[in-house]
Amino acid sequence: MAERGGGDRGGFGRGFGRGFGRGRGDRGRGDRGRGGRRGGRRDEEEKWVPVTKLGRLVKDGKITSLEQIYLHSLPVKEHQIIDTLLGGRLKDEVMKIMPVQKQTRAGQRTRFKAFVVVGDNDGHVGLGVKCAKEVATAIRGAIILAKLSVIPVRRGYWGNKIGKPHTVPCKVTGKCGSVTVRMVPAPRGAGIVAARVPKKVLQFAGIEDVFTSSRGSTKTLGNFVKATFECLMKTYGFLTPDFWMETRFSKSPFQEYTDLLAKPTKAILIENTES
Amino acid sequence: MWREALTCGTGLCSYFVAKTELEESLQYMFFGCLALNCGTDPRSWRALRIQKYHEEMKPSLTPSNAVSLEKESVPAPRVNSWLDDNMLGNESSKVNDESDSDTEMEDLARALSEAAALASSSKKQNGHKNTDASARGTVANPRVEDTGVPVLPCFYIYSPKVESSGDMDAVCSGYTSLSLKNHCASPDTEDEEQWERETYEYDRALGADRTYLKFKKQMDAHPEQCLRYSYGGNPLSAKTKLAKPDICKRCGSSSIYEMQLMSPLLYFLQQAVDGSSACSADGWSWITLIVYTCSRVSPC
């Protein structure tokens, strides 16, 4: 198993070497990343012992969709929750691996920073950023962080409400660092009009048509991608007239699935008779 | 210590006992209230540490100050609860003043240890006490007791060898750094994508902060760990701010960390309890229970 792991990662590393040599082979790197990873991880993913109460509810099958979690704003603290709920629909892609360096007395210490975006092309997208000493660790960690950050994306119509929603419901803008990204609804057939990097995020989100405009130092692509993600987060935060109806509150999954204690069999009250 | 027993407003009806034997002479018992709202209150937990003397076979008690409770985002109500023990058909003991409590506790302890001796006759004694590293307790298989009183099922816990992780990563690091060195001199021909000026960034996710992510990493390394033991060490915390432990109520000396119970314990208990309707542990939703004991070596 050790050799297999080493062999896997060796091939992985060599693949990365070729990727670097090509210069901008992002897509190649992503594919190889996915293939190399799936090799040795199968058995460990099967046994998931949930740590949080939400995890236990999801594992038992009491919660069947992510929307129930979003409705009550419950924090998702285990990436296996997203795995269970979104399952095979979730695709991931490594957008960039870059070395970040820190100057120490003994030379430069290089770590790798991985940007991974996950999404199901239908309204859920997540972005993860992870720094680690090895590339494989960074990618794996970034995928986990991306799954923990999966958000719902609201889609709407540009004009006539026929067919499925295909664009953002309204003009929204997101900002990270000095980069601001503005998304404007577009008619059907316009496609995603954006730079190559945020276009990927928008494709994973399931948005088919949108006009974007950006401002600031978009060369810092880390901030650019995060600004796009912020922008997508805001789509559900925007109050539109459809939400004017009074909210009908429903029970949170914690309350709904907690078994009330059965009739107490032997209720014994201990009085505190301390004088 | 038992003078501070307070009543639970809703009338408690069951309890939870976990016994582990890391040494021949040490037994731990954890008591918690199963009432709906009390599971989240730190004061509804008590831990009892029973230590046998080697000279005489009479067990003596070292009450440990349970518990700093790390809970999830469920709000803790202001209900204080206590627990009752009616495991062997003992009547509920009214703990009034100190003189009574000592003798009753010893009776209780003797009875419980006799039951423990009966129950643990076939248990494998695999534990060893680590003072430096933490031993991870893993659940072997459940055994459900069928008495008339509401009792949660019992489990066997054993501690596996802790293997060091990280040697695999060390093997692979050579490859990646090698390939990087060969190509860092290649010029960037495309101007539009120059991911520039990135610096080291700490882990961040929408619902989880860095401390919790480190906690989760440890949990993922051994997904079934139920117990972490490290006398005098540092607890693995999921929140950044841990409440400070109280001082020992008997001797006044400070408390140090001894062990912590982890969430897989809850999961296994709930899985085992699913069938029976006598009691349910759903009211509990803590991530970890940290047990502090008196720092004095001799029992106080």
TrEMBL record, chain A:
Gene3D superfamilies assigned: 3.30.160.20, 3.30.230.10
InterPro entries listed in its UniProt record: Ribosomal_Su5_D2-typ_SF, Ribosomal_uS5, Ribosomal_uS5_C, Ribosomal_uS5_euk/arc, Ribosomal_uS5_N, Ribosomal_uS5_N_CS, Ribsml_uS5_D2-typ_fold_subgr
Gene Ontology CC terms: cytosolic small ribosomal subunit
Ranges annotated as biased composition (Gly residues): 8-22
Ranges of compositional bias, category Basic and acidic residues: 23-34
GO terms classed as biological process: translation
Keyword annotations from UniProtKB, A to Z: Ribonucleoprotein, Ribosomal protein
A GO MF term: structural constituent of ribosome
The S5 DRBM domain, residue ranges: 90-153
Sequence segments annotated as region (Disordered): 1-45
Family: Belongs to the universal ribosomal protein uS5 family.
Protein name, UniProt field: Small ribosomal subunit protein uS5
Source organism of this protein record: Musa balbisiana
Automatic annotation (TrEMBL), chain B:
InterPro entries: PDCD2_C (IPR007320)
Pfam family, one: PDCD2_C
UniProt region (Disordered), positions on chain: 80-143
Domain Programmed cell death protein 2 C-terminal: 209-296
Cellular component, GO annotation: cytoplasm
Feature: compositional bias, Low complexity: 110-122
PANTHER family: OS04G0640800 PROTEIN (PTHR47762:SF2), OSJNBB0079B02.4 PROTEIN (PTHR47762)
Name recorded for this polypeptide: Programmed cell death protein 2 C-terminal domain-containing protein
Record lineage: Eukaryota, Viridiplantae, Streptophyta, Embryophyta, Tracheophyta
